[in-house]
Amino acid sequence: MNAPVDLLRLLALPVLGWAAHRDLRTRRVANRMWLPLVALGGALLAWEAWTIWQGGLATERRLFVVRVAVSVGVIAPVGYLFWWLGAFGGADAKALAAICLCFPTPASYLLPTAPSLVLPLTTASGAFAVTILTNAALVGAVYPLSLTVRNALAGRITTTMAVGRPISWEGVPATHGRLLGRANGLDSGLDLDALRMYLAWRNTSLAALRAAPAEGRDPESLPTEPNAPGDGRVDAATDGRPRHGDRRATGPAHDTAAADRENVQNPADPWGAAAFCDDVGDAYGATPTNLRAALDHLTTAESVWISPGIPFLVPLFGGLCLALVYGDLLYAGLAALGMI
């Protein structure tokens, strides 16, 4: 046990907890949050290495090298590989790398109120980052399980019951996640961040488009100078209420009924979807085709299926806390079953 190093490692917990909270609430984590963790982890790793080399046995040195090599040299790069493949968000990969650097070896804590009790309660001999990652995978499995149970109790037995849930159209602009494709009868889904970017770019709201869908489909109704689309984060300006200066949202100043009767459309670019994609570039993978299909559905359906997409940083933080208090959930479970 290297008590000073282990105690200082706990300084990473409030930073990671705040990052998990922000990622859950906004799906955005500032890059500056990771720099203190990298500095802390690097300093503590150097301190621990110096301590081991000064007073540790040869077996302890070898074990230390193996654990650090697995944590920093294998697990951390795997996080970036998952990000590159699209399985992780950028914050998830950075958080995993920071955790691997701050907790490359198992930590141990004696409680002042119970000197005979040592945390974590159970441990495995492997790299601590592996314990954290497997714990996070088990914690992360709770959410799709809860979605499945919730949908089953409501009688929604579908192939997407483990990954999605239905919500009213009013809640879509203020919800994180992805509009599901198959569950909504679409060929492909749409990231709801891309929808918010489109609404901001058009200077409109989903409510306004639903009030006058024929006009919304007509690219001639696009603003002469579109707004900056932003990054798609949830904002009060796109919560389904009329935006300031949006003449289509107010009604009296514009005869939307007449526009609906005329149903004037440019078949080359309904909704101005291609113009949006050309102007904005990459909007979370949105294409003119899936954006048009999503808008057609969102302007007619009363409820839609979305996948909330809980960021992995949340179960990753939970897995870390469990690793520090209890230990390796998978190892303990397999031991209880007599498999190891």
UniProtKB/TrEMBL annotation:
One of the Pfam families matching this protein, by short name = Peptidase_A24
Which keywords does the record carry? Cell membrane, Membrane, Transmembrane, Transmembrane helix
Gene Ontology MF terms: aspartic-type endopeptidase activity
Compartment annotation: Cell membrane
Q: For this UniProt entry, what's an example GO CC term? A: plasma membrane
For the region Disordered, what residue ranges are annotated?
A: 212-262
> Could you tell me where the Basic and acidic residues compositional bias lies?
232-249
Please indicate which superkingdom the organism of origin belongs to: Archaea
Query: Which chain regions cross the lipid bilayer?
Result: 34-52, 64-83, 95-111, 117-143, 312-337
Name the major location.
membrane
Membrane protein topology class: Multi-pass membrane protein
Is-annotated flag, keyword Transmembrane helix? yes
Domain Prepilin type IV endopeptidase peptidase, residue spans: 11-144
What are the Preflagellin peptidase C-terminal domain coordinates in residue numbering?
Answer: 290-329
- Which PANTHER family does the record match to this protein? PREFLAGELLIN PEPTIDASE
What protein am I looking at?
Peptidase A24B, FlaK domain-containing protein
Taxonomic path? Archaea, Methanobacteriati, Methanobacteriota, Stenosarchaea group, Halobacteria
